[in-house]
Prior knowledge:
Number of helices: 4
Structural class: alpha+beta
Order of helices and strands: EHEEEEHEEHEEH
Amino acid sequence: xxxxxxxxxxxxxxxxxxxxxxxxxxxxxxxxxxxxxxxxxxxxxxxxxxxxxxxxxxxxxxxxxxxxxxxxxxxxxxxxxxxxxxxxxxxxxxxxxxxxxxxxxxxxxxxxxxxxxxxxxxxxxxxxxxxxxxxxxxxxxxxxxxxxxxxxxxxxxxxxxxxxxxxxx
Length: 169
């Protein structure tokens, strides 16, 4: 990773929301362009590889075991959509956001003088739990450990809740 950077927890929350927004748009565009219906029971996606045009960018995609990898040709952004997207198009877990942070050249998240290594899925799980405790996100799938943002909750509201969580910790 070149030119890696740190971001604070509020910036990280914004980046994760961006991930969810992009993933949702890519999945919808995939379904529109390829008339492919996703079904969790057999998870058949055709074609398995190809090109998708969305958000003024060309995206390469590749179906894999439990999801679809998308890579933006211009942005270099990596969206690794999990099979849970069939029911949760905005869903994410620690592994997927780790890949997204890496594609943006972020290496760590800073909060209250703590540093969370974005390659450490256990630490990212703790971050997601903190975001859930702060009512910014909610767990939508226990099976896949997927989260989604609470409907239109502003990240600025999370800042207030983080301050309260910090005081009680």
